[in-house]
Amino acid sequence: VTEVVKNNFSEKIESFGTAVSKKNESFRIKRSDLVAELDLKKYVKKGDLILKLKDKNIIAPFSGVLGYRGITGDILDSNKSIIVTLDDNSVIYSDLKIPEIFASVIKKGLPISAKFSGNKNKIYNGTVYAVSSRINAETRSLLIRVKIDNENSELIPGSLLEVTVNYNERNSLGIPDTSIMLEGDKIYVYKVSEKNITNKTEITIGIRDAGYVEVLSGLTEGDKIVAEGLKKVRPKGKIKPINK
User: Fold this and answer.
1) Over 90: is that where the pLDDT of 12 sits?
2) Alpha-carbon 150 to chain mean position
3) Residue 79 pLDDT grade (very low, low, confident, very high; cuts 50, 70, 90)
4) Structural contact between residues 131 and 95, judged by C-beta atoms closer than 8 angstroms
5) Which CB contacts under 8 angstroms, 24+ apart, belong to 62-69?
6) What CA–CA distance (Å, rounded) separates 231 from 220?
7) Which end of the chain has less neighbouring CB within 10 Å, N or C?
């Protein structure tokens, strides 16, 4: 058994977008201009030396992660170019296309959560940063931009993000989804009395969220209900409760 308590519920919109860094810059360098073998630091601060060349030095214009996009042509050809990249990944942005039916509920500041295939067990939190003023007539979608804090640079620019936008957040009565019984178009739970007698009670539910069901009517906060093992329970029967 468990008590009926209040939980946070929200409706959700799911979409996909590409991670984009807060700032990025590329430096094209000829191999013949290098004074030593290319050995990049992983991270530099603003003002740090990135590369020393024969005629100049390349200084980091902002703090970020270093890498290189690739080497054009034969790696042994000294006239070919190396493209060094600098990305400020402390904040990640992503543009999403939201179906126009949600246009009335999407607004700046709504909370979002994101996951990517490189670390599916972790959820990254953020907000809706900007909302387009127009709906695209061809795709019937509204373009929004989300902002995600990425202090440890775990999200990598270019990765595909699974983004969930939460709207219409509220604090409502909730019960585990394992506690409800469906009979036709009606929904019931077993309400437990002080003497541990079960009473079959009809309820009205709202949305489901993270294993919980929103209760709109039929129960009050603090009521005790059967949470699991419904097949072992009968109306007006006495139970030996185990608190969940």
Assistant:
1) yes
2) 12
3) low
4) no
5) 62/23, 62/25, 62/86, 62/88, 63/88, 63/90, 64/21, 64/23, 64/24, 64/88, 64/89, 65/89, 65/153, 66/40, 66/41, 66/42, 67/40, 68/38, 68/40, 69/26
6) 24
7) C
Residue pLDDT, tens place only, 109-118: 999 999 998 8
Tell me the pTM. Answer: 0.75
The most distant pair of C-alpha atoms in the chain lies apart, rounded to whole Å, by 90
Residue 241: strand, helix, or coil: coil
Q: In a 10 Å sphere around its CB, with 0-12 CB exposed, 13-18 middle and 19+ buried, how is residue 4 labelled?
A: buried
Pairing mode, if any, of strands 186-192 and 224-225?
A: antiparallel
- State the DSSP H helix or E strand holding residue 21, giving kind and residue range, or none if neither: strand 20-30
Burial annotation 202-241 (CB, 10 A radius, 16+ → b, else e): ebebbbebeebbbbeebbeeebbbbbeeeeebeeeeebee
What average pLDDT does range 171-193 have in this prediction? 95
Percent of the chain with pLDDT over 70: 95
What pLDDT, on the 0 to 100 scale, is given for residue 76?
45
